[in-house]
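[recover] target loaded
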């Protein structure tokens, strides 16, 4: 089984961070962190993190920039608030799971075919329009649960729960990493293909494509063609 190095490397990097989301609060003295309530995409508590050990400082600082860290929407471990909220925790865990799954996926030259390997059945043989409809359905499946959960909460009295936030974030995280990695892996496969065929003559490319099964050739393989030429020459 072929292992794809790019998602493998990204998986381990993400796994280190995801592990830190649990290790950091568990290895601090109870009551060290929390309650927090900041803003996403900015460092709200940067001065507070400077008092933490280096490892914990890195985990909480990175999380501070990426998450609002609202106390009522976050889990508490060992008397310390986790570095990210419940939904972001689900998203990051989902990203790690999606990257792990992509490690064992054989990339196709077509982005759609790479994605469709996650759907049971031989969908790579379907028409292009059908593939697009399936992918739209997959996109809605991973995106809508989180959008609806957060959106309804904003415009109504509905209040989501932390387990629901985690589950919807998990689904979204898996979909996000799978979609992005499929795009990256297909692009790399396409570049490699162009590098291989770009340096060859048209006839050599045709032979190579036939051998790789990339196109259906009407003519015979090179070896059979030579034999047939020899038979015709010998009969003259």
């Amino acid at each position: 089984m072929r292992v794809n190095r790019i998602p493998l490397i990204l998986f381990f990097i993400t796994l280190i961070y995801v592990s830190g989301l649990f290790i950091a609060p568990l290895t601090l003295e109870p009551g060290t962190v929390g309650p927090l309530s900041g803003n996403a995409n900015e460092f709200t508590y940067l001065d507070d993190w400077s008092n933490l050990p280096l490892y914990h400082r890195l985990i909480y600082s990175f999380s501070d920039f990426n998450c609002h860290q609202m106390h009522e929407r976050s889990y508490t471990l060992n008397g310390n608030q986790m570095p990210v909220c419940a939904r972001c925790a689900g998203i990051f865990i989902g990203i790690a799971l999606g990257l792990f799954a992509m490690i064992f996926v054989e990339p196709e030259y077509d982005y759609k075919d790479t994605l469709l390997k996650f759907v049971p059945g031989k969908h790579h043989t379907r028409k292009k329009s059908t593939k697009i409809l399936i992918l739209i359905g997959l996109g809605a499946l991973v995106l809508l649960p989180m959008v609806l959960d957060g959106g309804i909460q904003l415009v109504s009295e509905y209040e989501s729960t932390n387990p629901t936030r985690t589950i919807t974030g998990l689904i979204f995280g898996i979909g996000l990493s799978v979609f992005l990695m499929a795009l990256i892996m297909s692009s790399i496969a396409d570049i490699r293909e162009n590098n291989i065929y770009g340096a060859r003559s048209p006839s050599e490319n045709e032979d190579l494509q036939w051998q790789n099964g990339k196109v259906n050739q009407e003519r015979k393989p090179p070896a059979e063609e030579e034999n047939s030429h020899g038979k015709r020459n010998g009969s003259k």
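[recover] notes: The CA atoms of residues 25 and 80 lie 5 Å apart.
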